[in-house]
Amino acid sequence: MNASLVINLGRFSQKHRNIFVVSLAVADLVVAVYPYPLVLVSIFHNGWNLGFVHCQISGFLMGLSVIGSIFNITGIAINRYCYICHSLKYDKLYSDKNSLCYVLLIWILTVVAIVPNFYVGSLQYDPRVYSCTFAQSASSAYTIAVVFFHFILPILIVTYCYLRIWILVIQVRRRVKPDFRPKLTPHDVRNFITMFVVFVLFAVCWGPLNFIGLAVAIDPGRVAPLIPEWFFVSSYFMAYFNSCLNAIVYGLLNQNFRREYKKIIISLCTAKMFFPESSNDAVDRIKSKPSPLMTNNNRVKVDSV
Predict the structure, then answer these.
(1) What is the CATH number of the domain that holds 79?
(2) How confident is the model at residue 296 (pLDDT cuts 50, 70, 90)?
(3) According to Swiss-Prot or TrEMBL, what is its membrane topology (predicted)?
(4) Residues in contact with 214: Cβ distance below 8 Å, sequence separation at least 6, in sequence order
(5) Residues facing residue 133 across a β-bridge
């Protein structure tokens, strides 16, 4: 495999990875667009006074963000698994069309997973967290299904993918694999570590809230009163704080993100983005420019005359 082919394959893979990363970023930003401002209003008024419709929309978008995040993290893990462990089939599995279809499928499954909330009536205002969210005590069977299919099962899939990748990385570094195995570049390893950290943070942040829901669903009458309010509130806000952590992880572990962050910060500090040059400066520049009659060509013409 020559150098140009390696570069082309790297660009091909990078483009498809970016599709999933952008999709994950969209899922993280959904809560900041609509639900979080309503939570601030609810905190300011010490209660929900925005009506039933806004409550349902806010709860729906929160669910869209949460489930969309875990499904996108699962999609990224499968993408990394195919790229590193099945590199010979990767270009067929993740063509331009297929990658877009995978992202579209992720969001379709996300919407389908949230729709039952409207039939169960589980999107309710919770005064403990000042937001309309998934009520774990609305339906025991549905809560168990949500925890399993929207958290435990994706976590198991992602864990399997990353374990296989770690095993292959260790084997390649120890050179115990045959020559036909893919050669991992430092860039591939860094990207894998970045997404692995994103997965670990998601599991740590969302684990407590999901296990609280599972415990409440199994025995609501006995378990629910035993859970301290401070523990539930802390678990809730820790879970939704996860949406803010991904950008920090990218900035710490990804050189491209760090470079772009520096550009943004420098632009904001120098205020070049917000204070364009004044018209007086433009006029002064025009005055300082040499007159067309003073150019070399015109001088030649004048001298010739």
Answers:
(1) 1.20.1070.10
(2) very low
(3) Multi-pass membrane protein
(4) 143, 144, 147
(5) 124
Q: Rg of the chain's alpha carbons, rounded to an integer?
A: 27
304 occurs within a structural domain: no
Residue 3 pLDDT greater than 90, yes or no: no
123 close to 117: Cβ distance less than 8 angstroms? yes
The answer to whether position 274 is within a domain reads: no
State how far the Cα of 180 lies from the Cα of 278, in Å rounded to an integer: 62
Q: How many domains does the chain have?
A: 1
Helix or strand or coil: residue 126?
strand
Number of Cβ within 10 Å of residue 161's Cβ equals 22
Residue in the structure block whose two tokens are 């995040």: 69
In a domain, 290, yes or no: no
In a domain, 267, yes or no: no
Q: Which two tokens stand for residue 104?
A: 């579209």
Per-residue pLDDT of 61-76, as tens digits, reads 999 999 999 999 999 9
Q: Contact at 8 Å (CB) between 84 and 167?
A: no
User: Using an 8 Å Cβ cutoff, are 135 and 122 in contact?
Assistant: yes
Q: Is the pLDDT of residue 150 over 60?
A: yes
pLDDT at 1: 37
The model's confidence at residue 151, banded by pLDDT at 50, 70 and 90, is: very high
* Alpha carbon distance 265, 275 (integer Å): 15
Distance CA 76, CA 82 (A): 10
**Domain interval for residue 22:** 3-252
pLDDT at 15: 55
Tokens of 130: 């000042």
